[in-house]
Design goal:
With 411 residues, the chain is of the alpha/beta class. It is 28% helix and 24% strand. The chain is built from eleven helices and 16 strands. Residues 1-22, 142-153, 155-159 and 369-379 have low confidence and may be disordered.
Length: 411
Amino acid sequence: MTDVTKTIGEPDSGRSDQFSGSEEPIIAQPASSNFDAAGRYERIDIKPFAVRITRRVITRTFGLWSRISTTIVKRMGWFPRVEPYVGYGTGAYSRLICRTVYAPINRVSGLVQRGIRNAFMVPAAGIRVRISIDNTELRTVQVGVSEAYDAVDNSRAKSSEYAISDVQGYLDLVTERDLTPGVHDVSYVVDGRRPCHAPLYTFPADAEVGIISDVDDTVMVTQVPKLWRAVYNMLFLDPSKRMSVPSMSVFYSKLSEQFPDAPFFYLSTSPWNVESSIRHFIDEHGFPEGPLLLRDLDPRPKTFIPTGVQHKLEFVEQLMADFPRMRFILIGDDGQKDPTTYATIARRYPGRVIAIGIRQLSPGESGRPLQRVTGVTASRPTPVTDVPVFYGLNGVNLMKTMLPYLRNLFK
């Protein structure tokens, strides 16, 4: 093995800090993730001609911007670093996600800052990343570029000590190693940078219950139905001023007390670029810890940008497959078609959904003038499903209706 290369102005990471574990290396392989694998309803080849042309124009324009911005930041002396995202897994495998981007020499990962600064991260393509879990190194069984998106480049140096990010900097790996339930430490290293770390939440394979929660307007006030307001909140609002939906953190704490082994998975239509801000919000407002499942902001030729509904459907389906014995409580709001989306999941997976909780948007949050005048909520007709659906304006309302049902069900 060769030592990590030292870059001017950045101290060497040191091998002893990274791979001092005595265990055999952890085996990993690239996953066919939502970054690269087209969902069944998102494949560009099934779209109308006008949609295909529009999407190709947008993706090529974005590709041109990426190439120009990469040239500019290299001339400015920026070089690659890793943005690590929270991983999850069972005792038998783990899923790790990160992104390589260009940044100034003193910029560290995971900074909590306004979304506008994160939205225009410049991806660093084809970067070699060394990964370890609890100081035990990862070795990839397929090395090179993404198996699902990029053509294999045989001219690249290959080494099983590295995983290599794709053309937009993403790296999505599935590892094979028995890990005890709990929080583990994942370390990422690229040449010339200090190691950066992210938690890995490992859940028991036999866990009976899991909670899948939307973020936008379910736990965090974003006002997604008001497009201009949602864009402002995501890009320009100080993350420390983000507001929590009233009493939802208390409701989630009660759920965590009732199901102490249940993992919480947070879904959001926000891009991965703002992961650190949402993570900070969850920690600061007392919500149970858990993985964030966001979406790729960058248009891709195969997948483009999935709709919010499709993004949630695909991630929930992924969790259903990842935890085949687990039954889920689904919590969302009525501002982004969550009732219909969750009802679709319940029909596709009979017996896997325990209950659905829907937070109702207020007339002001809904952005609908008629509802603001009449004072009614933004609720839509309850979807047809055999699973009980509970509605409430806030966490207190849901606690009064949903928690008694769950207590009786699990006596």
